[in-house]
Specification:
With 581 residues, the chain is an alpha+beta fold. Helix content is 52%, strand content 11%. The strands form 4 sheets. It has an 8-stranded mixed β-sheet. A 3-stranded antiparallel β-sheet has the order 13-14-15. It is elongated. The model is unreliable at 1-20, 33-68 and 77-83 (pLDDT under 50). Residues 117-256 form the Poly A polymerase head domain.
Length: 581
């Protein structure tokens, strides 16, 4: 209710201002902000608010005139549609002017060329949503991208503009580069030149077996989703919706494919995962046709066999870096794709069992709540973006915490196998995830024990040293795991006593760490090293030296102002008289 009132007042404020948001922009703004405060907004309230916002903000047809920096809409049908403008910033307007001039010059010298330039895909979508995008993909109706980029550079040089080098990106379907691309910079903006394309696919591969110049319509229909199939015509300043669905889907918040979902996914199964990522990025709904198609065993088999695991990992990485990873995970779970995306190790190598994947989804939701709530949160926020990414990756893999995998002569956490083999993510992700999983139980025990009696410096310090500099992240994950039974209370936006007590319990542990000055005790160096211990005790190298070094650290934690000589005396008294020495 509070959020709804705030949004109502914001509506009035916007109406009083200059009506700068388009219909698409405000729908997106409303959708994202409702979700920011509530994981399950009222659809009735949202639709009522949307209607009110439309009526006060979207009367674009009544606006008079049009500037060269704004665009109208072209659809593939003749029905009257609301006018939505793309407003170019100064750099974009200048780049478009330069490209238009180059094209006009080419048409005079090569009248048979019939060249048209369109900005394609994500830039158009983002501009309609009121978002800035510094990457421009320019689709050429004719002429190869590298050749055109060289002509543009000649024009820039002749007219006193700075020029940049041109990178030629050869065809590489595994990285979604199906035609040669030329990459350069114009006035500081990243620009890729590529041709409009038409593709046919092999039965058993997502790599096209035939790629040719296509029409704008063919190119639009071969894209993954309708909101990514919009064009901005540089010469006419018009948005072209050649699928006839992109603008309406952008307005209503729908992820839909230009062709049938079956054909789109059969051609390139990676698009299934991209649908999830874009739905999560903008908090859009996934069309029912897509949901039904993903159940198709042929499509599911293609997901397993036609996509490289590197590409899966890239998409998952973008999800966990995105604005709402838990929504991505929720979609993966609801579409029954967890075991396809986060594939399990071979059964013969497994020790233990995987838990219900919903544990990972719910853990991530609690982490989102801990990160976003303005009250009852932990006293170790905010955290850096890279740590948040690691937390979300670890959270979705928590179903694997009880599973090990046989790796040669040792047993390793199953999560390490998934990260390495199923997602092909860097080794650093493996190391971090294992470090977050390992201390969950010890942090849980420490938080509860600290409630009974304040932990002493050696006890708490050794726990933090065992975890290392990831201890704040491990603590957040431990809280999320402990609060799993209370998820419904958290979602209600009125957390019960168990939630509040759990948060306070871990805050008390954090407070104790700060009181004892242990925040960075993981970097504490041994006041006596291994060689000194061996000389002191007259012993040979061996595993016992590590035990004695641990005692040195324990002594240092208990005596933060102690000297080296005092520590040596302690070690001699404790270990020097043992028979084994």
């Amino acid at each position: 209710m509070i959020v709804f009132i705030i949004m109502q007042r914001f509506t009035i404020f916007l109406h009083a201002s200059s009506k700068r948001l388009s219909k698409v922009q405000f729908c997106s703004f409303t959708r994202l902000n409702f979700y920011k405060f509530s994981s399950e907004p009222s659809s009735k309230s949202l639709s009522q608010l949307r209607y009110r916002l439309y009526s006060v903000l979207l009367d674009k047809d009544s606006e008079k005139g049009n500037t060269s920096n704004s665009s109208n809409i072209i659809r593939d049908n003749s029905s009257k549609q609301p006018r939505m403008n793309i407003k170019l910033n100064e750099e974009e307007a200048k780049v478009c002017e330069i490209l238009n001039n180059v094209t006009d010059s080419l048409k005079k010298s090569r009248p048979d060329l019939n060249l048209t330039l369109r900005i394609a895909g994500g830039w158009v979508r983002d501009k309609l949503l009121g978002l800035e995008c510094n990457d421009l993909d320019i689709a050429l109706s004719s002429l190869m991208g590298y050749e055109f980029a060289e002509i543009v550079n000649d024009y820039l040089r002749e007219n006193g503009y700075p020029t940049s080098g041109i990178g030629k990106i050869e065809t590489n379907p595994d990285r979604s580069k199906h035609l040669q691309t030329a990459a350069t910079k114009i006035l500081g903006l990243e620009v890729d030149f590529v041709n409009l394309r038409n593709e046919t696919y092999q039965e058993d591969s997502r790599i096209p077996n035939e790629i040719a110049f296509g029409t704008p319509e063919e190119d639009a229909l071969r894209r993954d989703i309708t909101i990514n199939a919009l064009f901005y015509n540089i010469h006419t300043h018009q948005v072209e919706d050649l699928t006839g669905k992109g603008l309406s889907d952008l307005e209503s918040g729908l992820i839909r494919t230009p062709l049938s979902a079956y054909q789109t996914f059969k051609d390139d199964p990676l698009r299934v995962i991209r649908c999830i990522r874009f739905a999560s990025r903008f908090h859009f709904k996934i069309a029912e046709e897509i949901r039904e198609t993903i159940k198709n065993e042929e499509i599911r088999a293609a997901l397993m066999s036609k996509i490289s695991r590197e590409r899966v990992g890239i998409e998952v990485d973008k999800m966990i870096k995105g604005p709402d990873p838990p929504y991505s995970f929720e979609l993966i779970h609801s579409l029954d794709l967890f075991n396809i995306i986060f594939t399990q190790p071979p059964e013969e190598l497994v020790i233990g069992n995987i838990e219900d994947p919903i544990k990972g989804v719910n853990s991530s939701k609690i982490i989102r709540w801990l990160l976003s709530t303005t009250q009852n949160k932990l006293d170790i926020f905010p955290r850096p973006a890279e740590e948040i990414r690691s937390l979300y990756l670890a959270s979705i893999l928590t179903p694997y915490t009880s599973m090990l995998v046989k790796d040669r002569k040792k047993e390793v956490p199953a999560a390490a196998y998934v990260i390495r083999n199923s997602l092909k993510l860097p080794n650093q992700d493996i190391d971090t995830t294992i470090k977050l999983f390992a201390p969950i139980e010890s942090l849980h025990n420490a938080a509860h024990k600290n409630e009974e009696i304040s932990l002493d410096r050696p006890h708490l310090g050794l726990i933090i040293r065992e975890i290392g500099n990831k201890w704040p992240m491990a603590l957040i994950l431990s809280v999320a795991i402990e609060l799993l039974p209370e998820l419904e209370s958290i979602k209600s936006r009125n957390p019960n006593e168990n939630v509040l007590r759990g948060i306070q319990r871990y805050n008390n542990l954090i407070k104790r760490v700060n009181e004892l000055g242990l925040q960075e005790c993981y970097s504490l160096k041994h006041i006596i090293d291994g060689n000194e211990i061996r000389k002191l005790l007259n012993i040979k190298p061996g595993p016992q030296v590590k035990e004695y070094l641990q005692s040195v650290i324990g002594w240092q934690l208990e005596h933060p102002d102690g000297t080296k000589d005092e520590c040596k005396q302690y070690i001699k008294e404790k270990f020097g008289k043992e028979d084994s020495f």
